[in-house]
Amino acid sequence: MKTFAMGGVHPPENKFAEKSAIERLDPPKSVSIPISQHLGAPAKPVVAKGDKVVTGQLIAKGEAFISANIHSSVSGTVAKIDEVIDTSGYRKKAIVINVEGDEWLEGIDRDETLIKDCPLSKEEVIKKINDSGVVGLGGATFPSHVKMMVPPGKKAEYLIINGVECEPCLTADHRLMLEKGEEMLVGITIQMKALGVDKAIIGIENNKPDAVAHLKKLATGYQGISVEPLQVKYPQGAEKQLIKSLINREVPSGKLPIEVGCVVHNVGTAFAVYEAVQKNKPLVERVVTVTGKSVKKPSNFLVRIGTPVSALIEAAGGLPEDTGKVINGGPMMGKSLNDLNVPVTKGTSGILIFTEQESHRPPEQNCIRCAKCLTICPMGLEPYLLAILSDKKRLEECEEERVMDCMECGSCLYICPSGRPLLDQMRVGKARVGKMMRERSAS
Q1: Is the dihedral of CA 305, 310, 315, 319 positive or negative?
Q2: Any residues with CB less than 8 A from the CB of 392 and at least 6 apart, and which?
Q3: What is this structure's pTM?
Q4: Are residues 232 and 292 in the same domain?
């Protein structure tokens, strides 16, 4: 069975919520909607304190080339535009709205009747996606309309759809494929039209046989779409690894998938594209997994953007007594939260609750030169060396050793028998090298 060749690990899957159907949560009393919940420049608010808004209304406009529009996920009154703590732990500007009822913007089709036909042109599709604030829902949150604007001199041959969900514990994509598969496939055909490609491949790891079978059956009614089961291996959901697994093409260092004729989108993004283009519905809600070994009711919730994480935890049975950490994301790439009132954003795929025992890292010891971090790195890097160079602030050498190619998958940290904080040091190194590169370009 297909997979990528270089590196990879097999952490316990712990998909506790895989049988839990998607459950819609009611809007909370108040939401905090960050104006920067996407890769690129923050959006600029177009509302002010005291304004009345309805669900789906534009409240912040993405004016830069790489940016995304932000829409109100609720109806009510803008209480303030202020800085709030977001999932990164930093204070970021957000639009706080007090909820009053649930009135939706006129023209949004909330009926669940499937609409297959899309008469729009390529340019009209891309504009609809841009207007609706759709971003990559796999975690990177890159504005989707930008991905569909193939640069001059490049040609897209394949649309790759990421249904891998290789991160342990997370099941939002799995449930979406089972429950919204037909809408997702229509969304894929719309993306194919926008890109001008006639081939789309949905990659799904074979630990989701029900999703593979379901989408294979549905795909028979859609020309050019195939479903490819993949061997289970982390981090197969990373776009470079997924491309290698599916069509055996390697994206060069520092380059994007379009260099090898590919555009990669997540299954959640495909569904969001369907809703944006066929239903005139902006990205105002998403599916979030709430899970953990001690969670009473591991769940997949359809949640309004801006909802406090505490509301999701409460809906899943409350915070367990033995909680040690609450993680935004999965156990491999997620980051711990220091405040449970941080808002759900477009990039929130899961909330993982670690027990006290799971929260403790092993004591750090000296490197024993076992080379395990080298053998499992999916990018062919030398994590032990990059960690040392980063720690000593030898940034030029860090850059030469390709620290910017690190995808922060956490495989090196997971496998290290000495408990060394390799991922932490490489993240710091990437940030410093990135700053150095920007300053060099500006001078």
Answers
A1: positive
A2: none
A3: 0.96
A4: no
